[in-house]
Every structure is written in C-alpha cells, then in structure tokens.
Amino acid sequence: MAVKTALLLILLALAGCSYFPSILYRIDVQQGNVVTEEMLEKLKAGMTRSQVLFVMGSPLIIDTFHDNRWDYVYILREKGNLLEQKRLTIYFEDDELINIENHLSFSKNPINPKPVETTPETEKIQPNTALEK
Q1: CA–CA distance from 70 to each of 12, 25, 39, 106, 130 (Å)?
Q2: pLDDT-based confidence at 54, cuts 50/70/90?
C-alpha cells in the first residue's frame, strides 16, 4: 500500500511540473534554410535553376503544383518563443530566375533587402511587394 501511495505521489508531482514553465528547460530550435545577405547579393535575374541551387542550396519547399517557385523558410525559437521567421521565395520562368520575394517578420534585427537594379536584361523582374497576392 505504501508503494502504491508513493508511486501516486511521484506521478502527481511529475504531472504538476507542467504548471511551472519557468523551471523547465526548453531548447533553442533553429529550423529551415539560413539565407545570408551574401547569398542574396549573388542572385541575379536570368540565372538557371542549377546556378540558384549552387548559390542558395536546396530549398525547404518545392511546390509540386507550381514548379516555377522555390521557398526558403527559416524559423528561430528560443525557449519556446518565436524570435525570427523569414521567408524567401524565388520564381522561375523557362528555367531562369525572374523574381525574388523577401519576406521578413518577427525579426529582432530585420534585414532590408537591397533594391534590384533594372537593366534591359533584368526587365522581367517584378517589384518586391509584401502585400502582393
């Protein structure tokens, strides 16, 4: 009987730990693709998919319904709280890079993307708008 009571008290004490989140340890979680500013500077209109793959690495999401779109997503959580969430979307047409959308949100240190210079070769690039859709 004493063993059953002790076991019951131990189980109740363990279940009660969820009420004290400040004493629980939560790991920092980094998921997705890390995209640096140097990588973004290397992207140019007209690059092929293989060239973009060489510069950026494998995308986290390749949409099966829209094979002309690659998404690079990055999420950072510290102690269970969302600190950073970034998304970079790259669009292709006829196997060539035509548009880059850089969406940054919930970031303590936001990175402002450099404006794309328009030349006759890059006229296909559309302006970056976060509210587009």
Answers
A1: 48, 35, 15, 22, 17
A2: very high
What's the confidence (pLDDT) of residue 16?
A: 66
Task: Name, in order, each residue with C-beta under 8 angstroms of 23's C-beta and a sequence gap of 6 or more.
Answer: 17
Residues 6+ apart with CB under 8 A from 71: 59, 60, 61, 62, 63, 87, 88, 89, 90
Locate the domains of the chain by residue range.
Answer: 28-122
For residue range 57-91, list pLDDT tens digits in order.
Answer: 998 888 788 888 999 988 888 887 888 888 888 99
What is the architecture of the domain spanning 28-122? 2-Layer Sandwich (3.30)
- CA distances, 73 to each of 1, 32, 125, 128, 132 (Å): 55, 5, 21, 17, 18
Measured distance CA(59)–CA(111) in Å, rounded: 20
Give the global pTM.
Answer: 0.59
